[in-house]
Amino acid sequence: MNADNEPLPPPLAEDQVGLVVEVFRMLADPTRVQVLWALVDRELSVNDLAGYIGKPAPSVSQHLSKLRMARLVRPRRAGTTIFYSLENEHVRQLVVDAVYNAEHAGPGVPPHHRGISAVRELPARDRAVSE
What local confidence, expressed as pLDDT, does residue 36 receive? Predict the structure, then answer.
């Protein structure tokens, strides 16, 4: 099959392009990437996230606010604690694919091809809080 014979998809509408650009803009920050990666398989509070990524809670909270406005994360209140999770499976897949793609830039076989998951262990003091 010749790729030249495949019809091109229709161009994206300008407003949709703007939304896609905003998503990538949100991913262009190391702290936000770490936050999203931490949330791939779980929900965490601001303090759990701050401990995990080694940043002050107020800083993490500001990043979460931006991610929330971009509809990449969603909050859930439980008493006085707010837990965050990824907005949907598409966001999860975007984050996982970005990390896996970055792994290909390094030498050797990427961990995801060897069946090795990235270690994302919470510090012992925070583990009980998030479980």
Answer: 98
pLDDT mean over 39-53? 97
Burial class (CB in 10 A: 0-12, 13-18, 19+), 63: buried
* b (16+ CB within 10 A) / e for 85-123: bbbeeebbebbbeebeeeeeeeeeebeeeeeeeeeeebe
8 Å CB contact between 118 and 47: no
E strand residue ranges, 8-122:
44-45, 73-78, 81-86
Give, as one character, the DSSP assignment of residue 114.
T
Distance in angstroms (rounded) separating the CA atoms of residues 64 and 49? 10
Mean residue pLDDT of the chain comes to 85
Residue 5: per-residue pLDDT = 81
pLDDT tens for each residue of 61-78: 999 999 999 999 999 999
Among candidate residues 70, 75, 89, the one with its CA nearest the CA of residue 23: 70
Rounded to a whole number, what is the distance in angstroms from the first to the last CA of the chain? 50
Please work out, in degrees rounded to the nearest 5, the angle formed at the alpha carbon of residue 126 by the alpha carbons of 30 and 44: 55
